[in-house]
Structures are given as C-alpha cells and as structure tokens.
C-alpha cells in the first residue's frame, strides 16, 4: 500500500529513519554542557519529526515518541489546565497504538504517567490515580528488568508527590527497589539514577540520619562528570549549599551557591525557581554575617524573580519576611511596612491553596496508596481479604455450575426466552437505561459506605480509649447518614429526591440505637412528607446527625429520660425551617462550634445558605433557616 520511497526528495523509509535518528542525536547533544542550547535542541527535534512526517504511518511509533519528548518540555511552560487539555486531546493518537507491540505499550505508559502527574499537580487526585493505575496495567511481568525498574521508579516519584508522611514511606520503598537495578547500570541510565538519588536526598533532608543524606549527595556527585545536564549540576550545588547553610558552614555554602549561580546564568535558567532559591541562600548567608546591604540586594533580586514566575510558595514567604526584617535593621520603616503587607497577602494566598488541597483530598472516596500501605502493614486484614476472595471464588464456581446445568436442561426454552427478552429490552432500553444506571450508582455508593462503616466498627472494637471509641462511633454515624440517603434514592421511585420524614426517622432511630439510647429518649417528628434533592438532603442529614449525637451525649446525664423533637417544614419564599429540641439540661453549646461536630454544623449551614441560633429554655433548641435553591 505504501512505497519504499516517500517525500519529494525520494528518500526511502529506511533512509528517513536513519536521518531522523541523526537529527535526534544532534538534538540530544545540545541538551548537555558546554554546548547546551534549547533553541538548537528544538530545531533538531523538529527536523527529526519533519523527516518522519512524510513517511507517516510507516514510522508512527517513532514519530509519536519524538513528538512526546519534544512537547513534554514545551508544554511544561503552559498552565496545568492547558497541559491537561492538550494531553486529553493528543491521547487519541496514542490510544490507537497496538499494545501487542512492546514499543507502543511503553510509549503509552510514559504518556499516561506524565498525564497522571499533571492531574495530581492540578489537585484532581482521583482522576490522577485512575490514569496512573491505567499506566501500571501496561507493565507486565515479562518486561525486561530496566522496564520493571522504571515502573518502580515512577511509583516512587508519584507517591512522593503527595507530600503526606505515609505516602513518603511508600515512595521510599519503591525508590529503594528500583535503585537495586540502576545502581549497577547508572552509566547507561544516568537520568533515572539521578532522579532516584535526588528524591532520596529530599527524603532524608530533614531526617536525623545524616549519613544517609551524605551518601545520596555523593551518589549524585559521582554522576556530574558523565551527566552534563545543566539542571542536574545547579540542583546539586544549590541543594548541597542549602544543607551546608543549615549546618552553618557558611563559607562552603556560599562557594556552592556561587557554582550553582554560574550554571544558571551561563545557560539561561533565569526563569527557573531554583535561581531565586540560590539568590535567597546567598542573601541569608549575608544577613547572618550582618552584611545587610548585600543581603537586601540578593533578596530583592530573588523577589523580582518570584514575581515574574508568579511563584506563591513557602520560599516567597521567607523572602518577603527577610526583606521586611532587613529594612527594619536599616531603619527604613516605610519599606519594611510595605513588604510586611506583601508578606501578609502572600501568606493568605498560600493558606488558601493549602485549604483547597486539603478539601480536595478529603473528598476522595478511595486512596489507592493508603490501601496499599494498609495491606502491607496489617497481616490480619490480608488474611481476611484472602478468605473473602476464596469464598467468592467458591460461590462463583457453584453459581456457574448451577447455571450450566440449568442451561443444558432448558436449552430450547432459554433460546425462546432470550429472543423474547431481547425484543422487550430493545423496546424498554431507552426509557429504563438511565434509571437503572442511577440506581446502580446509588446502590454501589451505599454498599461502599457500608464497607467504610464496617471497617470503622472493626477498628473501634480494637480500641480501648473511650474518647477515641466515641469519635469512631460518631464517624460511623456520619457515614451511615449519607448511606441512608443513597439507600432511599435507589429504593424509591423518584431518583431525584429524598422523602425527608422517613429518612429522618430512620436516621434518628439508627443513631439512638448506636448509642443504646432508644429506651431513655423518646423521639417525636413534627413534620409532614417533604421531598428534597440529594444536594440538600446529605448536608441536612449530617446536621441532624450531629445534633442528635450532641443530645444523646449531653442533654440527659446519668440515664435521665427525656424527649427529642425534630421539626422540619418548608416555609414561604422557599425557606426550609429546621428545629431540633430536647427537654434536657439545656447546656448544648453547639452554636459556638468549638468541637469538630460544631465546626461541621457551621460549615454545612453556610453551604446551605442558612442561619443558626440556639435557645436554652427548658432544654435546648437549635433553630435553622435555609434559603433553598428553586430546584430543591
């Protein structure tokens, strides 16, 4: 179908590939010192791609590989949202590659790992985990050792991005496993060897194990003569200088900072964040030596770079803080005040970023890395899962056997029934498909929440501390309150709304039962049937859950009996009015929000555009008014 000659110049497919490889080697040559030049690298990379473009699709894999390596550096300067969109669009080209061909499979693996990292930087943790799992499924036990080692390295780097202590330990485990291969082949794979040791330097940076930190610094150092990437050299010198500064070895630290600065300035890395880090380090040393003018000059340069990079990290906080302090030392209080204000604004921005990330992480239903950690740490849980899996397999075998026996005995009847069923399904499919899908989703969510509740109950049974046990019980009740919503949705006829009277009754009885209080607290529901959407029902259920829990714990001490009344009604102007009251001792304090439950109620009340007040007359009454959206 394709001739061996392609393009206007009559170059054969084989010659085109050889020429492209030469251009690729030339492009790689310009990524090293002393000839490092990004424009030349991009130029020869484009030439390598152009040669193969004329032969597409004869060299489809090679062409996509070249484009991926070129664009990976190009796209890194774009915003995370832009990178994500580009990766999503271009995935269509990679997804078509045949997985039976090893080169295609490994190219798709590398693409998916990069995409997963972008998603994680964006904060889309769940989507990132899905992409990363999809990538790992492309690696098989039959792959050669260097591929297996690369997969372990990527797992170590990926889990390290989370920043949590548990994920750091998991990251360290995989990095050490991959190092077993790369330590014996570091001259063949210097890039991979550098990434592992650099990551391990970060891991031990704040650790008391200084011998380990020195070891991994030296492992990077031995690469420098053979690995001429400028970024590796200025990373090594600047990181070593940072460490020496902490150790207060200022002369050695300054010498290494200056070495790093030479690399940065000679090879035009002025737009890299590490440039500002180097300047900040030199500023700190000068400040410690009371050379305030010199320190201020370095810090002002660092701040200018951070502004150009739009960098709102902890480094900016440190730079602004020290600039303010230096101006105060010099008696320039006007400039000191200016930078203190900038410090305050930057601190607020960083705190907002932290809170947003924390919120995104708390919304994850399943965290693959945590599950892997738990499975490796708890042998008894492993045994439980294996037994459960074995029982499931036995059950499936029995079901399969019974189905096969029934099929053999009713073959003719089954054929007729299947034909009729297919015709009926074709008629009903359009109307029923969405409803079945929604019910299945709610059912699965409910089942998953029951699993979470069961795990909390199992964990609680092993805890002796009463406060911790109570906290576990309260968490279990919160999970159950959400689970009941999804149960009502898939069991009911209206998949878009919850009937609140029955829901509140089931929720209240469940909580009273969990605390063994059904005998001492009489429940009264003063409400008519009321349908609310799930976005309103879930936070409302959590509010009611917290208030009932508070009543059980505090309203009736020493087994005192009493009445709990819940009133819920829709008022004019689309106002939802909720009153939860008891005739107990009248010392709730929920509205102050000092505990986790109170904070949760306050947060959920704001989420529902509501107001809250508390009255203590013959007991406690907590009164809410929520401004509902028209769809609720």
UniProtKB/TrEMBL annotation:
The keyword Nucleotide-binding applies. Its EC number is 2.7.13.3. The chain crosses the membrane at residues 383-403. GO terms for molecular function: ATP binding; protein histidine kinase activity. It catalyses: ATP + protein L-histidine = ADP + protein N-phospho-L-histidine. It holds the Pfam family HisKA_2. TPR repeats lie at residues 276-309. Residues 535-630 form the Histidine kinase/HSP90-like ATPase domain. The keyword Coiled coil does not apply. Keywords: ATP-binding, Kinase, Membrane, Nucleotide-binding, Phosphoprotein, TPR repeat, Transferase, Transmembrane, Transmembrane helix. This is histidine kinase. It comes from Flavobacterium capsici.
């Amino acid at each position: 179908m394709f001739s061996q000659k392609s393009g206007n110049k009559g170059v054969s497919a084989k010659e085109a590939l050889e020429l492209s490889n030469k251009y690729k080697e030339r492009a790689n040559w310009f990524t090293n010192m002393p000839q490092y030049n990004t424009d030349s690298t991009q130029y020869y990379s484009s030439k390598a791609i152009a040669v193969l473009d004329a032969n597409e699709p004869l060299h489809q894999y090679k062409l996509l590989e070249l484009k991926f390596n070129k664009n990976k550096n190009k796209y890194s300067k774009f915003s995370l949202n832009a990178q994500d969109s580009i990766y999503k669009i271009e995935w269509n080209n990679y997804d078509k590659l045949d997985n039976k061909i090893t080169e295609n499979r490994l190219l798709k693996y590398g693409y998916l790992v990069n995409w997963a990292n972008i998603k994680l930087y964006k904060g889309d943790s769940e989507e990132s985990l899905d992409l990363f799992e999809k990538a790992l499924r492309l690696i098989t036990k039959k792959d050669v050792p260097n591929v297996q080692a690369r997969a372990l390295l990527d797992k170590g780097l990926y889990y390290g991005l989370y920043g949590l202590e548990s994920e750091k330990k998991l990251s360290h485990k995989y990095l050490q496993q991959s190092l077993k291969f790369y330590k014996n082949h570091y001259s063949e794979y210097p890039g991979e060897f550098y990434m592992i040791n650099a990551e391990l330097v970060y891991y031990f940076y704040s650790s008391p194990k200084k011998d380990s930190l020195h070891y991994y610094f030296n492992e990077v150092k031995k690469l420098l003569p053979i690995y001429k990437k400028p970024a590796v050299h200025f990373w090594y010198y600047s990181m070593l200088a940072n460490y020496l500064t902490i150790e207060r070895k200022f002369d050695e630290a300054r010498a290494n900072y200056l070495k790093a600065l030479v690399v940065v300035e000679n090879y035009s890395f002025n737009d890299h964040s590490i440039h500002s880090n180097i300047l900040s380090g030199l500023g700190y040393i000068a400040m410690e030596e009371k050379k305030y003018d010199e320190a201020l000059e370095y810090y002002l340069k660092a701040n200018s770079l951070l502004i150009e990079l739009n960098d709102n990290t902890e480094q900016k906080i440190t730079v602004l803080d020290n600039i303010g302090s230096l101006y105060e030392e010099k008696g320039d209080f006007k400039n000191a005040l200016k930078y203190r204000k900038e410090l305050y604004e930057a601190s607020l921005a960083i705190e907002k970023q932290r809170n947003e990330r924390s919120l995104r992480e708390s919304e994850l239903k399943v965290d693959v890395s945590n599950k892997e950690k738990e499975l490796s740490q708890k042998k008894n849980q492993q045994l439980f899962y294996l037994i459960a899996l074995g029982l499931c397999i036995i059950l499936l075998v029995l079901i399969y056997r019974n189905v096969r026996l029934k099929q053999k005995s009713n073959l003719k009847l089954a054929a007729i029934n299947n034909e009729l069923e297919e015709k009926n399904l074709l008629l009903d499919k359009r109307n029923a498909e969405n409803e079945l899908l929604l019910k299945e989703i709610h059912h699965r969510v409910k089942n998953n929440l029951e699993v979470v509740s069961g795990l909390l109950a199992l964990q609680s049974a092993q805890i002796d501390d009463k406060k911790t046990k109570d906290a576990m019980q309260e968490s279990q009740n919160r999970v159950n309150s959400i689970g009941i919503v999804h149960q009502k949705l898939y069991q009911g006829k209206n998949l878009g709304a919850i009937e609140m009277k029955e829901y509140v009754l089931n929720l209240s009885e469940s909580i009273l039962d969990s605390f063994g209080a059904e005998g001492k607290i009489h429940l009264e529901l003063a409400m008519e049937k009321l349908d609310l959407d799930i976005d309103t029902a879930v936070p409302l259920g959590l509010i009611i859950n917290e208030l009932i829990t508070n009543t059980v714990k505090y309203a009736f001490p020493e087994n005192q009996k009493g009445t709990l009344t819940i009133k819920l009604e829709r008022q004019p102007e689309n106002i939802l009015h909720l009153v939860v009251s008891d005739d107990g001792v009248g010392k709730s304090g929920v509205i102050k929000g000092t505990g986790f439950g109170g904070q949760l109620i306050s947060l959920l009340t704001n989420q529902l555009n509501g107001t809250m007040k508390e009255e203590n007359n013959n007991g406690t009454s907590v009164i809410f008014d929520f401004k509902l959206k028209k769809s609720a």
